[in-house]
């Protein structure tokens, strides 16, 4: 378990906090690209405690800047979206994508504020259907993470995100928890799906005592989950890396279609975060495939009218719809439909920031222990002036090949088999 001080260190991400400053050294997913219309309304978004607006200019370029106009703090979510930037409705100040104040119409012509100060604005890019931004100091900007998308065309990528009302670390730790799957995620439908797969790589539902191993890497943590199959003989080894600062990956063979799944837990505030699920497939995704993913995994079940919360979120009690009759009949273990919703319900139930001083960890929590140790070590090294892990020039290829294309070597297999 962590001390109260360590828990604070890992969970606080606003500007000026150690974890917040470390996270700002990476390219960060901001919003799903198709939510921004060319020349349309800017989109309010909260990232790392900052109130921002994302937008797509009439010429198609994406941008990200502070929400409140530097003149009198009017919201730029109301702004006119012009080719040169956002124009505030209050006094028509025009703010360029790089934060320069280009025009101040009420002022005399000789007044020029473009060199006086810069409004908050961040370098932005669009890739894989995602708008990304870099929110750290210019001199420390790393390479853009092209490695995430190398093997795939955008037509083979399905992107969703949802808003979750609890701290980001609860999400990451949930994904590195190998033991909850056969319990929390058990449903008759999921068992039927896994029984019907020709490729057994997604079979995990029947091993109630899975094994896990973890190894430190320059870019994060490599973990391996071992799940015995239904026959109790063969086993699947999931390669499941954690990549700084908040990504995880694993292979996905849903409906026997080869691919991979990326998750990300991007802090909105200290008590909320954005949950990303990005599915990559070797084959073009059909409507039937996307419908299957949304129904069984819950990735697309979000409500744009409720800040992109998942539709099963009620906001009452522990926050999620639960079918007690389905639990009693044995049809589901949790009474909650959809793998994403099941995960979010548990994470939400821990409270806005889980009190990790009250935990009692066991041998099955080794990946959680190693994750916390890795993050604390990374913060200590960063505080001494070291680089953010995995951002060194030329590190992208090593992340891709080590994290996503490796197989568990003998030592990792042995650890996972213990």
TrEMBL record:
Keyword annotations of the record: 2Fe-2S, Dioxygenase, Iron, Iron-sulfur, Metal-binding, Oxidoreductase
Pfam families recorded: LigXa_C, Rieske
Highest rank taxon of the organism: Bacteria
Location of the Rieske domain: 27-133
GO molecular function, one term: dioxygenase activity
Protein name as annotated: Phenylpropionate dioxygenase-like ring-hydroxylating dioxygenase large terminal subunit
